[in-house]
Amino acid sequence: MKNRKSEYSNHLNRLLSCRKCPQMQGNPVHGCIPSARVISIGQAPGIHEERFGKPFAYTAGKTLFGWFKRIGIEEEAFRSKVNMSAVCRCFPGKAKSGDRKPNPAEVKNCSEFLEFEVRFHKPELIVPIGKLAIDQLMENTKYKLEDVVGGVFSRELYGVLIDWIPLPHPSGLNVWNHTDIGKACIQRALEKIKNHPVIQEEFSL
Ligand code: SF4
């Protein structure tokens, strides 16, 4: 138990002091908890998240937690039960439209933290949020969102057998979310999340 506690606090220290990616504009932000059966994976924090000290703390978070509320999960409950990981833990800076997408070297640099969290928590379910996060779980990254959002998948990740249920990025810039097909896929995905046994148990649904 003591080892587990120190392993977890070492992880947080390494994560919070990491400065491996020179192009990142912000410092690491985390949504880690010491014990979790579910992990979510976002893309990277936005410009406001460092100030709030947690992922999905601003407008995209409002949409994301609005989705979870539809299936009976409040934001506070989600944050207390789900280890909120991300492909990259620092704000990447702005692009012409929206936030800059982390580059492959940054994704690789940051993957050690996700790997630790998967090996440490051995989650039963992972919810990747947005294409970059979904890509980390797909063998073939040439797919349309409607081909995966609404589905339930299984695979081994870092030696752990997991189920995974993808969601699109909740950013207001993601127009797909507002199309008929997007809305239907999101609703299907939320139902799949709600009905997953670990979600039923963790949130007493
Ligand atoms: S994005 Fe990840 S690997 Fe890169 S500096 Fe931030 S915490 Fe470190």
UniProtKB/TrEMBL annotation:
Keywords: 4Fe-4S, DNA damage, DNA repair, Hydrolase, Iron, Iron-sulfur, Metal-binding. Residues 28-190 form the Uracil-DNA glycosylase-like domain. Pfam families: UDG (PF03167). The keyword Iron-sulfur applies. It comes from the Bacteria. Signal peptide: none annotated. GO terms for biological process: DNA repair. InterPro entries: UDG_Type-4/5 (IPR051536), Uracil-DNA_glycosylase-like (IPR005122), Uracil-DNA_glycosylase-like_sf (IPR036895). The keyword 4Fe-4S applies. PANTHER family: TYPE-4 URACIL-DNA GLYCOSYLASE (PTHR33693:SF1), TYPE-5 URACIL-DNA GLYCOSYLASE (PTHR33693). This is Uracil-DNA glycosylase. It comes from Leptospira ellisii.
